[in-house]
Specification:
- By secondary structure, this protein is α/β, with parallel strands linked by helices.
- The protein has 4 domains: 7-109, no CATH class; 139-207; 212-257; 295-452, Ribonuclease H-like superfamily/Ribonuclease H (Nucleotidyltransferase, domain 5, 2-Layer Sandwich).
- It has 19 helices and 6 strands.
- Strands 1, 2, 3, 4, 5 and 6 form a 6-stranded mixed β-sheet that branches.
- The longest helix is centred in the N-terminal third of the chain and has 19 residues, at 136-154.
- The chain is flat, with a radius of gyration of 43 Å.
- The relative contact order is 0.06.
């Protein structure tokens, strides 16, 4: 890197130092310069005058470098004094020469050649001697190797036209199948396979698959839930059955089996605007409950089948995520919500006063809705305007329902879809485990809590 300071600037700095108005350290601080660099300029000026400040490019021989090092050692000079004495402008050069000399001697001080090193030509491979000069044993050995190589290349499992020479396991199988006809050493040479690798692969092939039974169970769980379970839920099911296994092992085995959860999360978004009276957001995204029928959430979602529509209005208990009531219908009329409310209120026991949270849809602003809720002394809560995250628990259920049932199955009629929704919600409540519920289904979790209480 070239010095960014001109010769005239260096000369001005040195002359200010020699005038003695301020010290070297203070002058360097004022000019924003390195103190050691200013001292070096001053030393060079004292030894060589203005020419010692000029920028030059010099190449030093190994003999000169050795002379500099010996003079510095003999007279007890510092590196800065030695640089000024011999007019060496390159910063850090003497220190670098010292390290090279101590590590490699005088030859290490020689200038290195720049650029790419010339390529060394390999000596030509001597041609093989003619057959008449080779011994009978040598010819027999070469013939045996050629026969082994030819047999190896013809082995069906050895070469795959699309994959080249195959992996080590395929090579080991091919060699093992030819051992009764040819020498093992010749076959390994033809396959370019180390002997240790060959024996390791043969041992691994003979050991069998210790996860065979577990793979069968994983596939059975996967098929029973129609591809809805990923490796985490399958791990939870296996642990419930008494299997001690890490989730990473289940993930690896599912990858080997080509099994992957078919669920792709989707989220339903809808907003109808503000009409009538809206209740405050009392829930405040507290999607947990300490007991059943403490906090409920509800909403409406839409399905389309062959140009026809079906609407679902469920109520979820935030205690265990259970769908305690739902109603379906071809039109999003108030009777849809009214029927759902009557079913949900039928689950209440004396003393239950749940908080019922919804969005600001017109159904939940309707006077009849407010009357039905007030009769049961249920406290209303509503999401903020256009904010679906305030009812995220219900939106999450809709996404799971559509991902695990609606998008994975084909429904030709509304009646088929209604039947499918009934079956899935029963499955969701009674069979589908939730990791947040200690690996239990909502109904199992609620029943277990009631039995413990």
């Amino acid at each position: 890197m070239r010095n960014k300071y001109s010769d005239e600037f260096k000369l001005q700095v040195v002359r200010q130092c020699l005038r003695g108005d301020v010290g070297i350290e203070e002058l360097a601080r004022q000019l924003g310069l390195d103190y050691s660099m200013v001292r070096r300029w001053l030393e060079h000026y004292r030894q060589h005058g203005p020419s010692g400040l000029r920028q030059t490019r010099r190449h030093y021989s190994a003999a000169f470098k050795r002379e500099v090092l010996e003079r510095m050692r003999r007279d007890g000079l510092s590196i800065r004094q030695t640089e000024a004495l011999f007019d060496i402008r390159a910063k850090g050069a003497i220190g670098r020469w010292q390290r090279l000399y101590h590590s490699g001697g005088l030859t290490a001080l020689a200038p290195k050649r720049k650029g790419r090193r010339p390529m060394t030509k390999k000596p030509p491979t001597p041609p093989p001697p003619p057959d008449e000069e080779r011994s009978h044993d040598e010819l027999l050995k070469e013939l045996a190797y050629l026969r082994a190589e030819n047999a190896y290349l013809k082995k069906p499992r050895c070469l795959d036209p699309g994959e080249g020479h195959g992996d080590a396991g395929q090579k080991a199988q091919a060699v093992q199948g030819l051992r009764h006809e040819h020498s093992l050493a010749l076959l390994l040479r033809a396959a370019e396979l180390p002997r240790s690798t060959f024996y390791y692969q043969i041992h691994a092939l003979g050991a069998g698959d210790r996860y065979a039974a577990l793979k069968v169970r994983i596939r059975a769980i996967y098929d029973r839930h129609k591809g809805r379970y990923g490796y985490r839920r399958i791990t939870a099911v296996l642990r419930q059955a008494g299997e001690t296994i890490n989730h990473k092992a289940v993930q690896r085995l599912m990858h080997q089996l080509g099994l992957k959860s078919l669920v792709r999360p989707k989220r339903y978004r809808a907003y109808r605007g503000a009409e009538g009276y809206a209740a405050p957001n009392t829930l405040q995204r507290r999607f947990q409950a300490q007991r059943p029928h403490q906090r409920w959430v509800t909403d409406i979602t839409e399905f389309k089948v062959n140009g026809q529509k079906l609407y679902l209005s469920p109520v979820m208990d935030l205690y265990n995520g259970e769908i305690i009531a739902f109603q379906t219908g071809p039109r999003p009329v108030f009777d849809l919500v009214k029927g759902m409310l009557k079913k949900a209120f039928g689950r209440l026991t004396p003393g239950d006063r749940p908080l019922l949270h919804s969005d600001q849809g017109w159904h939940y602003r309707h006077p009849s809705y407010r009357r039905l809720v007030a009769e049961q002394r249920v406290l209303r809560s509503m999401s903020r305007k256009g904010n679906c995250l305030d009812n995220a628990a219900m939106e999450s259920f809709f996404g799971t329902l559509k991902a695990e049932d609606f998008h994975l199955n084909r429904f030709d009629t509304i009646e088929q879809l209604q039947q499918g929704l009934d079956q899935y919600i029963h499955y969701y409540n009674h069979e589908r485990i939730r990791l947040k519920l200690k690996g239990l289904s909502p109904v199992q979790y609620r029943t277990q809590a009631l039995d413990a209480g």
